[in-house]
Amino acid sequence: MILSVSRRTDIPAFYSDWFFNRIKEGFVLVKNPFNSKQVSKVILNPKVIDCIVFWTKNPKKMMNRLDEIKEYNYYFQFTLNSYDKTLETNVPEKKYLINTFIELSKRIGKDRVIWRYDPIILTDKFTKDYHYKWFEYLSKRLCPYTNKCIISFLDLYRKTERNLKEINILPIDKDDMFELAEKFSKIASKYNVTIETCSEEIDLSKFNINHGKCIDDRLISKISGEKLSIDKDPNQRKVCGCVKSIDIGAYNTCNHVCLYCYANFNRDAAEKNLLKHNKKSPLLIGELCGDEKVIDRKMKSYRDGQLSFYRK
Length: 312
Known about the structure:
Blueprint: E1 2-5, H1 11-14, H2 16-25, E2 27-32, E3 35-43, E4 51-56, E5 74-79, H3 94-108, E6 113-120, E7 122-123, H4 128-142, E8 148-153, H5 158-161, E9 169-170, H6 174-190, E10 194-197, E11 209-211, H7 217-224, E12 246-247, H8 267-276, E13 293-296, E14 299-301, E15 308-310
Parallel strand pairs: 1-4, 1-12, 3-13, 4-5, 5-6, 6-8, 8-10, 10-11
Antiparallel strand pairs: 2-3, 7-9, 14-15
């Protein structure tokens, strides 16, 4: 089983104490995002968790406690963009995040820290030249500490359009994507960084940019030292290359307040949810009311090509 921590919120930045409590207790409860009365009990036994994938803009609060997950395989998807507080309202300054990225890589190795420069957004302020300048700067700073950069282009979902209504977002067409990809590819090649796309239909292979897997069975096999066979995740979009995982996060719970975020689309709901968080609860947000249906999630280990089922 692959544990995703988490596409839906930044657990390392805001809920690390809760996460380590869940590791200690050996299980976590996860509400169905579409039906709060359906709850899954996910066992956190390292014998069946093949890898943990962390998604974060700031893992600093976790870094002194990594020994507590030494029995697990894991890696980080670390988003480090060029935007200021116009778009990333509550994200720390770049110097701090660059230093944090470097420190994390020194602790766990460059294979296990994936740099994300996404989504790419064009405005009157955040122009192509702006992105080229910042991508060059960040590539130069981070290249000794990572092997790969993941990029994507902004998808304007209905729920994110509301948050961006005050920002003059410029459309990105196919020609823009080709131009950005060509320039980014030349910069990345200069610093020996591989670029892959996240959930993009466009073929950028002529610029040495291939479709990526953010939850990547190839990388997990490399980290674990064991060959894994994992199917594509059917719950993700068709263009998403990720393999199957279980996500333990919740929507509208992140305090970074990035205006482009598809997972944190209601600020009022997020503020209320943050107040409901209890680091000792098995749920990320709130407590069980008693009328939920709690189901033990079947746990699959993909190691050695064998499927082993585990229930506590």
